[in-house]
Please model this.
Amino acid sequence: MTRDNHKKNNAGKCIRCGLCMSVCPVYQVSLNESDVARGKMALLEWEDEDANIKKASRFKESISRCLLCGACAEVCPNKVPTTDCILTVRQHIASNIKEKLVMSSINTLSKQTRSGQFFRKSSSILQKCVGKKISEDSGLHLRFPLSSMSHRKFIPKIHPIPYTGHYSTESKSPIKIYYFTGCGANYIFNRTAQALTDILKKIHLTPYVPEKQMCCGLPFYASGDNQQASTLAKKNIDIIDEIAPDIVLTTCASCGAQIHQWQKILKNDPDYHARASKISSIHKDATAFLLEDNPLTNNLLSQVHPVTENIWYHHPCHMRWGATQQPVPSKLFSSFERVNVTYSDNQCCGNGGKFQISHFDLSMKIFDQRIDFFKHQKIDRVLTSCTGCHLQFLEGIVQNDMNISVMHPLEWLWNSRNMSA
Amino acid sequence: MKKYNQSILLDKSMLRQLKSITGKVMTAEADRRCYAYDATNMQYLPDAIIFPENEEQVSQILKLANEAEFPAIPRGAGSGLTGGALAIKGGLVVVMTRMNQILNIDMENLVADVQPGVVTGIFHQRVQHLGLMYPPDPSSSAYSTLGGNVAECAGGPSAVKYGVTRDYVLGLNVVIPGGTIIQTGVRTAKGVVGYDLTRLITGSEGTLGIITRMTLKLLPKPKCTQTLTAFYPSMHKAAENVSEIIRKGLIPKTIEYLDHAAIACMPKDFPGGIPSEAKAMLIIELDGIQEQIDTESTQILELISRYQAISMRKAENPSESNAIWKARKAISPALYKYAPDKINEDIVVPRSLIPEFVDKVDELRQATGLTMITFGHAGDGNIHFTVMLDKNNVEAKKKADIVIESIFDYTLSLGGTLSGEHGIGISKAAYLEKEIDPQTLALMRQIKKAFDPKGILNPGKIFPGEKS
Model:
């Protein structure tokens, strides 16, 4: 590659200004240059000089210590596609090394220490119940691999029947809505899915929720398994196009962001690429969709049921940065006079999907930055619309012995308002 | 990448001794690569990296370095623009970011005690919450550290009214080579006891000692701010206008100027739009109480219209002000649209002579055909003179070197100085003798020797002829 192309396209464009240090959640707790984007870009330039570096464990470790939150790419004055650079290396590592990052991260994990008691669940119990219920292709398997080795205290209950399994796909709505549940709402947080469909029903809309819909593929994509990510993207595109919806809704910010990645993953397949970009153009976050100026939802939001509580609204990174960025849904809370909402739109929760498994202590350190505030402000409830963030808050709250409930904003809306009126 | 063979002095037993001080020393090549650069994008591999957590550890590190005579290079966020934090002779990089506590904010006396690793932007937020202000605001403040700011005497856009970092440093704790801890300065507004070592160390670029604690002066935070923008048909008109504003006794917090090449880097949605015939632009910010800034805005707008501005605008709300400043801060990086490499100098000329300087740049631009941009702090005469080029283009590089040399000569002939806020480091060491006469330079070398007789602390910086 000529120097110009190199400079234009990848890590070589990084001028080491250091601005990424001001936003990187990992760097801000570790204070290690190898954790921040410009350090990683320096390592990638080194890789250009010497391909064997990829095998160096210290190099792999650095590449794995990234949440892929996208903040650095967003603020980068020279527009270095930092997350893409890291994903590309992860792909190389994943395809070159059989065990892939997942395994190496589990190895890292077994060496980790966190003061306090380690909660070790028998893997077999969990794997038996999780393994049978969750589709083989779901990224949740990456989120909960051999949980016995984890120091995690929160083990999610897997719902007896996946949401898509018992939801009818008949629809007579004036607009065709496709609800992409994602594995979180499908297998764990069924109430989120239920809340959305119930609210939609209230405004006379029935979404399509086909049972055969697949995992969005993000956990695989983030681990460098592009093959599985593109297989899942294609299957999803086929299923969506079968219905030919007007709108695709998600209740998980990460699934939403991944839907926007499909076109990039499928860039070498013109047909799928075109279909993927069509789908990303009709995708909307469900909460944002409901808050659009629409007489039916306006009517819903005007039914005030005051509850006194202190809410922490956590804006997921996939809504703060990149193609799916959007403002915090302040309209959701505007009519609740007795609800005090703190909007958190500048702090990553530290989950980063598999990052939480491979770098548990670091992940919790990032999370713990908000604990003092939670205690001080007596936060009762956390609302967030991303499966990763949701799981992270559940874990972090248990780790800190706190009593705070966590839910999707739409579930909260559905619970707190008397919509049957 | 410049490589030095692993220093013989930092051998295994030495690394073990260092490790016994802090518990951890990094030596893996991956880590050394990540501490080889700073914002100059030059690279020099250090032999090892250490992260002291308190003053005592810094003292032990410098004691060892002095005994074994290996280079020790203090580093904050590594966001400097002249190579101050680079291990150009290898050695041990001493990273101060783990000493990042705000120790005390004294609301009665408006002073704060801080450790050097505190990020400047975080400190700004903390004091602002208390209704106070720490004025030095380099554009790197979101990630640079207070220790680095003091070591380089960082400036920023508000120097015209509030001065620079050195005006806010009251006292320091400093570890000097050999490990001795010295305390300089006072905690009061006044103080004339002994030599002013605080001022000597501020801006000494980590060559005299490692700062471990700073006592900083704070101000009450002004209640309101107002941003004004104006476009001019020529740089002369803009500069004359600046002089007139200040002559009238109006001292804005900030007066920034942009030439036409910098204006071309502004975003299309800039508040109020950008007139196509604009050749220069001023961004003026006032702060104070509401009535005062209202009166001053009116006076300044009146002066602007008298100086034939093409258009002018008073920002209507904070979000408009933010958009203006965001556009201003984005210029420097946006310049890469012109070429892949940047040479950036931060010369200062007397404020009234900015038009002459800009004429000189036009002349050089025409003579060489190089892309040159000037923008900066018109209020204090600090100009960011930038050449954009491809350094692989040998001819362009040669021309740029000549341009820089003549820019420096011209700056000095106007009564200016080679660096307003970035420091000398290694980038400008070769030019130091243009400004500093031999006798003064000799005294400076003696001062360095008094602090660091063996030359182990940040070697090769500032002084010419010591780079290799």
